[in-house]
Design brief:
The complex is a heterodimer of chains A (419) and B (225).
Chain A (H helix, E strand, L loop, with lengths): L1 H20 L3 H41 L2 E5 L9 H10 L3 E16 L11 E10 L1 H8 L5 E4 L9 E5 L25 E6 L2 E11 L4 H4 L1 E5 H8 L8 E6 L5 H10 L6 E5 L6 H39 L1 H9 L4 H37 L2 E2 L4 E2 L5 H27 L3 H6 L3
Parallel strand pairs in A: 3-8, 5-7
Antiparallel strand pairs in A: 1-9, 1-10, 2-3, 2-6, 2-9, 4-7, 5-8, 6-7, 11-12
Chain B lengths: L1 E12 L2 E13 L4 E6 L5 H8 L7 E6 L2 E2 L5 H11 E4 L11 H11 L4 H14 L15 H13 L5 E5 L7 H16 L3 E5 L3 H4 L4 E6 L2 E7 L2
Parallel strand pairs in B: 3-8, 3-9, 6-7, 7-8
Antiparallel strand pairs in B: 1-2, 1-4, 4-5, 9-10
Helix pairs in contact in B: 3-4, 3-5, 4-5, 5-6
Classes of the chains: A alpha+beta (419), B alpha/beta (225).
Chain lengths: 419, 225
Amino acid sequence: MFSNLGLNIRIGFFLALRQIRRASLWTTSLIVFVMVLTFLNLVVVSGILVGLIQGAVNQARSEFTSDVIISTLDDKKYIENSPNILALIKSLPEIEAMSARYSEGVILEANYKTRKETDKPNTAGAQIFGINPENEDAVTRLSSSVSEGSYLAPGDYDQVIVGQFLLSQYVPVDDPNLAALDNVEVGTKIRITVGGVTREVRVKGIIKSKVDALTRNVFMVDSQFRSMIGRNDGNIDQVAVLLKNGADPIFVKEKLKRSGVTQFAQVQTFEDAQPQFLKDIIDTFNMLGFAFGSIGLVVASITIFIVIFINALTRRKYIGIMKGIGIDGGAIRLSYVFQSIFYALLGSVIGLAFVYGFLVPFVGEHPIDFPFSDGILVAPIDETLFRVGLLVFSTIIAGYIPAWMIIRRNTLDSILGRN
Amino acid sequence: MIETKNLIKTFRNGDVETHVLRGIDFQVKEGEWSAIMGRSGAGKSTFLYQMSLLDEPTSGDVVVDGRSTREMSDTEEVLLRLHKFGYVFQDYALLPDLTALENVALPSLMQNLDRRSAYAKATDALTKVGLGHRLNNLPSRLSGGEQQRVAIARAVAHSPKVLFADEPTANLDNDSSEAIMKIFTELHREGQTIIMVTHEEQYAKLAEKITTMDDGKIVSTVKNR
């Protein structure tokens, strides 16, 4: 049985190769083009959908959480034993840079000098972070997100940088639930109230970004922040840790856990720190992409079915002749299967070259500008190869069925063209 | 060598039955050249198709080398056709995607001969029919006579026991027909068993035995030599 299969494969390949070689170049190109489109549909649609969210995740990582983020336990006001924890983090060989942050809720108020008794106060609530500007910039390059005015300097006194969505002129929709300050720009003086302490500060810069943690919050120099909240024990609220290239965030997280950091603080990788809804959206988009891709797969299968059916039907006489002179039906069927595999593989190879040679790097360099993220194209090679396998498998089935339908017909009827 | 026993073929179209073969007993010995003649619709081609196992008779039997084909499986029949039979059709029936050499080599390849040997056999066969210089031509690049010679080469390259030919000169001009018949004569001289359907008397006369059919029956058998 197996020797017969081997022989059929050999003859099937022999016939397929010659049919492909002598087929019309236009027809072959058209079929391969359909296969390329199907491949792109399978890989790129879901890749863009997932990349839309992945872009947001990547930006949150590079601009706010960094690779590992250590934050206050849910039932604590700050990270106890912070100086020792900071020293421990600093001692790890995987660490490139870190930024310790203080954080409290803040009420911002503008135009308080010109406001009448009867006017509604011009206020907005946010989170304020006390940072060492140099350390923060080394970890998140916060300075590059300051689009108006300038970034904080270590000696800045009573100055803040403010996220764009705390200023009404930058809020895209007028949402009564999102309070923003009116008439505030770089240089404007505003009042900030933290834990009952109020201070007048000047807006030094405005942060523009697609990361909520930047656009809806306020940053000031840590020494000023400490003096304002009266915290002099060295305890902080958050540490963003940037790892050296190639270091694994999970490995560092586990290392910190083993060192007992979790007794005083929460240790998360950038992925852990994502909100659950983002992870759910990625899964949903993945499913949606697969659903769209499946439609493409059905279209490709039908295309191959029609191509092979017409091909086999127009060659019915020759199929009959081959059967007549003793060529096994299995070998003839295999010749059509090989042709289908050829179309699917060639389409996939061209698609792979296009995706990995052009699309992924291009979209990486020029992200798609979505309102809430810079979308990238996510195409992990293992998932892509799985989809190639799926495409090849569907085309094998789509090529086999019509060939089987035509080849099973009576040999003499096929030779004589009788129905 | 090959024998038919009470071979009957009836076509049904709804309630209408057409009796094309009405019980034919026929025998061809090894090395014999037998011609089957008759007017159009006499059933000669249908008879050839049943005898060569390209079609299944309604009843009766075809016996090849003493073995009944009645109980043979489809696979056995395919193998019998591959190893023991060769076919020449009226319209050449070459595969358009294969060169002359590939067309001729195909049955040998299917017999699991390695490529080199199959191509060597095919080259010999094509040289024998005078087409040694057109090995790599596609059928579309060959004249009708040349295509029929390729078809003959394909039919005999794997040394079949019986060569079946259905009106091999019907589509050819006189010169080409003469050339084809010369090849048949040569093959017969070398001991090839040939069963040939023709309506051309001058070519039928080349055979040792002429069987005439009419209305699905054999009406005469004449020994020519």
